[in-house]
Every structure is written in structure tokens, then in C-alpha cells.
Amino acid sequence: MRIATVDSACSVLNESFMPTNILSMVGIVVDHPYEQPSKVQARSEDYLLNDPDLLVKELKLCQEMLETEQVDYVHLDMSLGGVNILEITQADLLFKIPMSPRGREVIRAILPELQSIATAIDEQYHVPVLAIGKRSGPVRLAELYAAAYGVGRAMEKVKESGEAICIGLPVGTTATFNGDKVNITSLIPIESKLRAEAPVVNGVQVESFLNPIIRRFHALKLTVENIEVV
Amino acid sequence: MRIATVDSACSVLNESFMPTNILSMVGIVVDHPYEQPSKVQARSEDYLLNDPDLLVKELKLCQEMLETEQVDYVHLDMSLGGVNILEITQADLLFKIPMSPRGREVIRAILPELQSIATAIDEQYHVPVLAIGKRSGPVRLAELYAAAYGVGRAMEKVKESGEAICIGLPVGTTATFNGDKVNITSLIPIESKLRAEAPVVNGVQVESFLNPIIRRFHALKLTVENIEVV
Amino acid sequence: MRIATVDSACSVLNESFMPTNILSMVGIVVDHPYEQPSKVQARSEDYLLNDPDLLVKELKLCQEMLETEQVDYVHLDMSLGGVNILEITQADLLFKIPMSPRGREVIRAILPELQSIATAIDEQYHVPVLAIGKRSGPVRLAELYAAAYGVGRAMEKVKESGEAICIGLPVGTTATFNGDKVNITSLIPIESKLRAEAPVVNGVQVESFLNPIIRRFHALKLTVENIEVV
Q1: Per DSSP, which regions of A36-180 are E strands?
Q2: For residue A76, what pLDDT is reported?
Q3: What residues contact residue B101 under an 8 Å CB cut-off, 6+ apart?
Q4: At residue A62, what are phi and psi to the nearest 5 degrees?
Q5: β-bridge partners, C218
Q6: d(CA C216, CA A164)
Q7: Helices of type H across C96-211
């Protein structure tokens, strides 16, 4: 089963370790055994943390990938049990699906646009868009890739500006550095084979620590490396 | 504390990786330190995934085991906080216990029969039946055994029919093969000592992968081994 | 960011493995990288398991620690998303915050006293008290320390009375013994660097096992060591 999906990750953290904006959105295509993507498409923009359009942008990136990639399903990072997004009605959202008030409001606002894109995907490629979210393995893998590219982007920003920044990794992940690459791996034991990598610049020092205000999340402190003159 | 319990596991997956039916039900008796059962009783039948009578069949198997096994408690795979099933009223189910509408409907339908069996167990053996479900360590161990026997049964089916099938393992578990045995182990770190084994046939090839539509679950693809003629 | 917090842990278990009372309360101060506290203050008293005043006692211990410790935040083991406790109204508790009926009742009862202490802390030290609970890394670390000191206290009790007792450790933790110290470590992979230690007496035998009625929790059986006379 060939699956296309997109996720966004890697938040800039303020001095209270609260996320402010998201650094990276990555689309992947993955097939059996669902460990390594056959395609990775990264976007490097800043996204607002609570931007209701983030999901719309993610689905648009999926749609773009379908221009060149044949898949069986699109997995959308919206956790509604895996239902086809074209089968969701406003009534479902109002009455049937348990959700936080804020989540309900956001999803109701963007549902028409999501369904319009999903209809176009259905008509052109006959591919269903599933609202599967955090239950999807490919969404998790896309999250690791988004984090890897986000770390790369954050390191570039630090190198350019000279200013330190803190970023937050996805839940249950860690970053390791190997030459000019960052590797993001899942620390959830059953996901030990999931890993993502992205290129990084040199000259930035990285310190990893547990985010004190949200358990099970690592944060990275990025600073310009002091060049010791011997 | 000696505990008898029964669980069912190992689903056949269709081409969309959705579970269709369950291959195995296993009863165990376990005592301190709750790592290895002193008795294992396996049933090899097909069970419908949403069969409301599955819990009734599980409790009947517990009842049968008590004919020869002395225990202090029966753990039923129904997650109601560990309450004695004879103390649950229809009013509790209607108003007090938080539950999905579907769960509520199923449990209300089978509660009279469960209570009738629990009454017989209480009268004959003075053993309470606790609705403890996923909180119980012994239920988890029974789940691993049910998975092991289910893998064995699936491999027999593949060998007999010559047709490949996919099966789903319980959450956070992995299968390893050692000669004519399958071992199911828990990948949850605190459960690293929990393992179950069952006999398997030869001549079936097994490939393990992460189920893409449900995170933290492994699936196995079973095919008849190609015998290379040299 | 320097954080002071207090947690209580290590329950005595009855013969059904149900917790009866809590053996230990520990306050810590921790700063970047949030792995080892710079200060540990242990209380050895018995606390009732459902004592609504436990949180009040925890906040009072935080307040005491602030007499000598400068911190940026107090983390309270009350899981309300990290809100400043002075911003919580009775109306929030009644209508806005999802909670069990029992939790709601307890928190409504103690909120005035918690807010009175938080006001004193705010006036004297300008330090906000956050109702962050289980999301806080420092609360988890305090829990490990409370468990370590609780194990030490339980071993003293066993040595004094000569009677065996069972105690329950916090979720996802394990105890190891090294000379006259107990180490409590987290088995959650991302928390592998979190550990706590406390002094213990000699002459008590410890057996670790999985609590059969609550998954992911270890229990310890403590008995007076038989001295073999050769």
C-alpha cells in the first residue's frame, strides 16, 4: 500500500519553552515495510502554531506530490479515526465526533476547503484522503522528517543571525548529528527502525535537553560555535 | 495472588490492514511474580471481531479452567476499573461509567450472561470476577499467549491453503521465531520480562512490518516458503 | 529556568495490591538541563492516599523551600494544563475544565487554601505557581525522588517491625540497590537520564515484581533478611 502524507514539526520555543511557530513542513511517500520514504519533499517556511490553514497547506502539498507520485491513499494529519474526509459532514463535527471546542471550531472552518481539495484529488487520481492523524505510521515518519528539516533550518537561522534559539522536537524523538547530517529517531521502542535525516550547516553548537514544561519532549538549544583560536 | 484470565488476539488483516476476525483465545493461570503462567489453555477458533459474545466465551473458558485450578481472582478483559462484575448495575452502565455508546450497548447486552456465569463461579469456587481489562498484568500476558497461538494457527492456515495472509499482533509486541516455536514479547520497557511462546509449523515465511494504519502495532505477512531446488 | 516542585510517592500496598498510604514527600529544585536537582528536601510521614490536603502540604513545602532557594516557577502536581493557579476560578472548575467528579470536588475544596499560599508566594517572591502536574518534567523527577526516599523509609519500617511489607513504585520506574543506596530510574526511554537516589538500611531483602492489578507499575516486597548462621 503506497501512502502519501505531509506533516509539520519543529517549533521555535520562547524563553518559557512555549512553542511560537513551526519551521518545517515535509511530504513523504512510503510503501511496505513503511520504514523509509521513497520520496521526501520539504518546505521551509514559518507557520503559525495555531494557523487553522496549516492542514489545508499540508493537503495542498499532498496534492502537488500526486502530480508525479502514484499512491493508494493520502493520510491527513487530522485524527478522526481514519474516515474518508469526503464522508465527514458538518453534523458529524457538531454532534457525533468527540473533540475539544477549539478543535471543533478549527475543523469546521477549514472542512469545506479540505473537502474541495480532496474532491479534486479523488476526481483526478481516484485516491481517498483519510483523516487518520496520529494513528498513522506514515504521518509519524513525516513528522520525523519535518523535524529533521526543521533542525536544519533552525541551524541556518542561528548561523545567519548569530543569535541562539531553542527548538522543540516531536514527542518521543531525539536528534543526533553525524557530519553534515541530522538524524531524528523515535525513542518509542516499536518505532526503533523509524529515522529521518536532513542536511545541516556546520558551526552551530547543539545542546539537547528535556523540555521541563512538557514531558517526553526533547528541546535543542542552538548557539553559534565559539571558534577557539589556538 | 493466583489469577485466572483469558484473552483473545491475533487478527487476520484484509488488504487495507483492517482486522476482520480473531484467530485465538487463550486462558492462563499466573501467580507471583506474574511473569510466567503455570497453566496455558488455548482455543483455536475464528471469532468475529465485534462479536459481543466474545467476552462471554472468555469468561466461560475461565470457568472451565477453575474446574482444575485454584485461584484467588478471575480477571475479565473488560476495562471497568477492576470492579467485581456482580456489583455492576444496569444503572451504572447507563449513567455512571464513562464509555463509548457502542461499548455501552455491547456491555449492557451481555451483562446478564456475564453475571450469571460470575454468580456460578462465586457459588462454586468463591472466586470474584473483576472487570479490570487493560489495567491487568495477567490480561496482558494472556494477550501475548493468544497472539503466539494465533500466529501458530495462521501459519498452519497458510501452509494448508498455500495462500498468503497478513495478521496483526497486539499493541507494542513483536514476534521472533526459534526453530519450531514463535515467541511474542512485549516492547514496553517495563514489560521486558513478559513473553509467550507457542508451537509453529515449518515451511512458512514470515515478514514483520509496522502496520501503517495503526501506530505501535506490528503486522506479519505469512507466505508459503519457496523451496529452492538446487 | 529554575523550578521548585514537590511530589509524593511510594504507596504501601495491602494484600490485594491496592495502595493504602503514601510514605514520602520530596521537594526539589532543578535547572537546565533538568536532569539532576540542585536541592532535595525529603519529608518522611504517612499520608492518606486520598487526603485532599496532600496538595496543600506539597505547596507548603514548596513555599518553605523558597525561603532559601531562588526559582522562576513553582510546579504544582495538579494537572490543569500549566495555568497559573491564581487565574483559576470556581467557575472554571465547575464548567470549563474537564475533570472527574471526584477530582472536581477535591480541587474545589482545596482551591482557596492553594490560592492563599500561591498569593503569599507571589507577594513575597514574585514566583508564579503553575498547575502543570503530570506534564512537568520536574514533577516527574520529584516523583522519582519521593519514591527513592519512600523505599528507604519502608525498609526502615521492615527492619524495625520485622514484618514484611509491599510497596508500589511510580508508573514506569524500577528500583536498583547499590550498597547503602537505592536508585529509582525511569523506564520510559526518553527519560533514561532521570534517576533519583536515597540512603537505605541494610538487612532487608527486596524482591521486585510487576503489580498484577495495575500494568506498568513495579511493586517491591520487602522482608527481613534471614541471616544464615554458618
Answers
A1: 37-43, 47-48, 73-76, 83-84, 129-131, 165-168, 173-178
A2: 97
A3: none
A4: -60, -45
A5: C210
A6: 39
A7: 101-125, 137-161
For chain C, 230 residues long, give each residue's pLDDT as a single digit of tens. Answer: 999 999 999 999 999 999 999 999 999 999 999 999 999 999 989 999 888 899 999 999 999 999 999 999 999 999 998 999 999 988 787 777 777 777 888 888 999 999 999 999 999 999 999 999 999 999 999 999 999 999 999 999 999 999 999 999 999 999 999 989 999 999 999 999 999 999 999 999 999 999 999 999 999 999 998 765 55
Strand partners, A181: A178, A199
Task: Name, in order, each residue with C-beta under 8 angstroms of C81's C-beta and a sequence gap of 6 or more.
Answer: C131, C132, C135
CB neighbours (10 Å) of residue A199? 13
Query: Do the beta carbons of residue A143 and residue A151 sit within 8 Å?
Result: no
Report the residue from B1, B137, B189 with minimal CB separation from C215: B137
For residue C91, the surrounding DSSP H or E stretch is helix C90-91
Q: Min CA distance, A17 vs chain C (Å)? A: 9
Tell me the per-residue pLDDT of A5-40, one tens digit each, with 9 for 90 and over: 999 999 999 999 999 999 999 999 999 999 999 999
- Most confident stretch, A45-54, B79-88, B215-224: B215-224
Q: Cell 548561523 belongs to which residue?
A: A159
- Alpha carbons within 13 A on the beta-carbon side of C153: 23
Q: For chain A, give the mean pLDDT.
A: 94
Cell of C112: 482557596
A5 and A55 Cβ atoms separated by less than 8 Å:
no
CB B219 within 8 A of CB B17: yes
- In angstroms, rounded to a whole number, what is the distance separating the alpha carbons of residues B192 and B188? 7
Q: In angstroms, what separates the C-alpha of A212 from chain B's closest C-alpha?
A: 23
Nearest to A136 among B207, B208, B213 (CB): B213
Q: How far apart are CA B142 and CA B82, in angstroms?
A: 17
Query: Distance from A71 to chain B by nearest Cα, in Å?
Result: 13
Q: Which of A188, A208, A212 sits opposite C1 (nearest CB)?
A: A212
Closest partner residue to B189 among C15, C187, C212, by Cβ?
A: C187
What's the whole-number mean pLDDT along residues B36-46? 95
What 3-state DSSP class applies to A118? helix
Residue of chain A whose alpha carbon sits nearest to that of C193 = A210
User: Higher-confidence residue: B181 or B81?
Assistant: B181
In a 10 Å sphere around its CB, with 0-12 CB exposed, 13-18 middle and 19+ buried, how is residue A202 labelled?
exposed
Over 90: is that where the pLDDT of B197 sits? Answer: yes
Complex confidence, ipTM: 0.92
Q: Which chain B residues contact residue C214 at CB under 8 A? A: 135, 137
Which distant-in-sequence residues (6+ apart) come within 8 Å of A134 by Cβ? A77, A79, A140, B215
Please report residues of A whose CB lies closer than 8 A to that of B208: 33
Residue B194: is its pLDDT beyond 60? yes
User: Beta-carbon neighbour count of residue C145 at 10 Å?
Assistant: 27
CB-CB neighbors (< 8 A) of A35 in chain B: 209-210
Grid cell of B70 as nine digits: 485454584
Length of chain A: 230
Q: A132, A190, A191: which to substitute to probe chain B, counting the most B Cβ within 10 Å?
A: A190
Taking CB atoms and an 8 Å limit, are C189 and B189 in contact across chains?
Answer: yes
Is there a contact between B108 and B92 (Cβ–Cβ < 8 Å)? no
Q: Residue A224's CB: how many other CB atoms inside 10 A?
A: 16
